[in-house]
Design brief:
By secondary structure, the chain is α+β, with helices and mostly antiparallel strands. It has 12 helices and 10 strands. Helix 3 packs antiparallel against helix 7.
């Protein structure tokens, strides 16, 4: 029974609250209740239940969108392994700090991973370690050239446009505090706040003040400024199966150069797509999406990709997300 409960689809109210947190990870129960037309006590109770048992985590995203969509340095890896050798290779990759994402596909012998690396470098993992591993039968790597959509930017489509607008962080920037050790421009303060918020972005200003040793009023001003200026990006970590989206697929697309930018933007705006990147290699556009069922995935392939200048598409369905670093 516990296992069934852990894998069951969340109810409509809980799904709307997840979507509200995606709009503003630090939103108060009172503001969420007002925007969604719910009782504040209900929202407070449901938010506590969702976060207390780990169903939903709100964290500070360590990867913000690079300036102008450029890449900070990462490789997509596609690794094929011998049958029966999948688990040890997956475990070894997941244990590496430079590998934030590891997915296993339904083929049973294929791994997709992302490796952080210096742009243009001769990465040791790609050039030496994986090729010398006997269990690895094939290895493809592609450099991320441009970011169209990050997972932290994906939104569960259960809210109306007015509700999303009401939930979005907003308002004028707070006035700067007087200069000094607690001024809003103090880098050590921002670093301390990010470190404290990394595992739980919903910590109160009072708790952050206690942890960082700064006055609560200063912490509130600084948080407001960081959020308004895009330096405090939160991400909601939740199993998409709990949102009624049990199918995840990877797409390796070939697009004519004169259609690449438009195709990337179109994918980034699609409600199912949680990642879209221009890359090097024969598949110059990579994407990933969540779907309610195989019929929805088929509609995406047969209808939504039409007219984007895509000349070839390869689809891989994810069977297991071995590692997902927010």
């Amino acid at each position: 029974m516990a296992s069934e409960s852990a894998n069951s689809v969340l109810g409509p109210v809980d799904q709307r609250l997840v979507a509200a947190l995606q709009c503003d990870g630090r939103i108060t129960a009172e503001r969420a209740a007002e925007a969604l037309g719910l009782g504040a006590a209900t929202v407070r109770r449901r938010l506590h239940a969702l976060t207390a048992d780990g169903t939903v985590r709100v964290v500070v995203s360590p990867v913000a969108r690079p300036r102008n969509g450029g890449s900070a340095g990462a490789l997509f890896l596609r690794i094929r392994v011998l049958r029966g050798k999948l688990d040890p290779i997956v475990a070894a990759l997941a244990a590496r700090p430079d590998i934030p994402f590891v997915d296993v596909t339904t083929s049973g012998d294929e791994i997709f991973a992302v490796a952080r690396t210096e742009p243009g470098s001769r990465d040791r993992l790609v050039f030496r370690q994986l090729p010398s591993t006997r269990a690895v039968t094939a290895l493809e790597s592609a450099t991320i050239l441009h970011v169209f959509r990050l997972t932290s930017e994906w939104r569960h489509q259960v809210l109306t446009a007015p509700e999303r607008a009401a939930l979005a962080p907003g308002g004028p920037l707070p006035e700067a505090a007087p200069s000094g050790p607690y001024g809003v421009d103090a880098d050590p303060l921002e670093e301390a706040l990010i470190e404290a918020l990394a595992p739980d972005a919903r910590l109160t200003a009072a708790a952050l003040a206690a942890r960082t040793g700064h006055p609560e009023s200063t912490v509130r001003r600084r948080l407001a400024r960081m959020s308004a200026e895009g330096r405090l990006v939160t991400q909601v970590v939740v199993d998409p199966r709990r949102l009624g989206l049990p199918i995840e697929a990877k797409f390796l697309l070939q697009v004519a150069p004169d259609h690449l930018a438009a195709a990337g933007r179109a994918l980034a705006g699609h409600p199912s797509v949680h990642g879209a990147f221009a890359t090097s290699g024969p598949s110059n556009l990579h994407a990933a999406g969540y779907f309610a069922d195989l019929a929805a995935l088929y509609r995406f392939l047969s209808h939504d990709l039409v007219g984007l200048g895509i000349t070839h598409v390869e689809t891989a369905i994810v069977s297991h997300a071995a590692k997902r670093t927010p």
